Amino acid sequence: MESNTNGYVVVERIRGKSTITRCFSKYPLKLINPNKVGSSTNDAVWIYSLTYGGGIVSGDAISCGVKVGDGCTAVFTTQSSTKVYKSVGSKCSEQLLEASIGSKALLVFIPDPVTCFSTAKYSQKQIFRLVPDSSLVLVDWITCGRHASGEKWDFAFYKSTNNIFLEGYQPLFLDTVLLEQGSISTIARRMQDYLVIAMVILIGPQLKQVQNQIQMDVKKMMSDLLYIPSGALGYNSRGSSSQCKPAFIASCSAFGPKGIGVVIRISAMTTESVYQFLRRHLSSLEMQLGAVPYHGR
Predict the structure, then answer these.
(1) Transmembrane residues, as ranges (predicted)?
(2) Mapping DSSP to helix (H, G, I), strand (E, B) and coil, where does residue 172 land?
């Protein structure tokens, strides 16, 4: 992949610390390794990904590789939402990420959401290869677009594929989200009042405590949210329920051998509510990363 890629990052353990030993990028991708993000006492490196011009245009095909060596900790993030601009003809904007995570290593992949503008076409594929004691945090989410100016789920096509493999090619988690305008029903109609959909994945031994806590929190949150006291449910003149839809819905389930992974799926009516959820539930990673994920967003 490296020969025709737009970016490539290698993190290795040098003198007892996680260190970026290679960071290469070319147009339209830019990779930045800031000197300081969090506490200097933490063994973690941060990489920011952004595109020249602040977005992706029709026909762009961006590929990036990440290699996190044994015993290393790396954070891969963005500086703002990934904007996908208007497509021309049948062209589709594409992004491919391939990452390998070594033994006792941790990769935290926490981008801001994708935002597709009117008529945009966008496809992304993210491939992660782990070993049994690797750990991975993955956040993948999309907002409806510039809904304040009327672009609510107004793009033509969106596809996000996440494939996670153990020890090379053993499938651990294979998932695709596809949103496409149909002749009978639009994306906006199918999504109703929800403006954000998100998926959070936590895999590996370094995240066991976070996994346990988030499963308990989501279960309690949804139990409280969906609890309806006797007699509180109203009905309209046709006898159907008039209860309002929850502004934030989350589900949580384990997957893989011995429940090695946990996936949380979210639908929300505001982007800020998802940021709040991520900040709260990933805050315990501060000790490993030197800073709270999504802090200041």
Answers:
(1) none
(2) strand
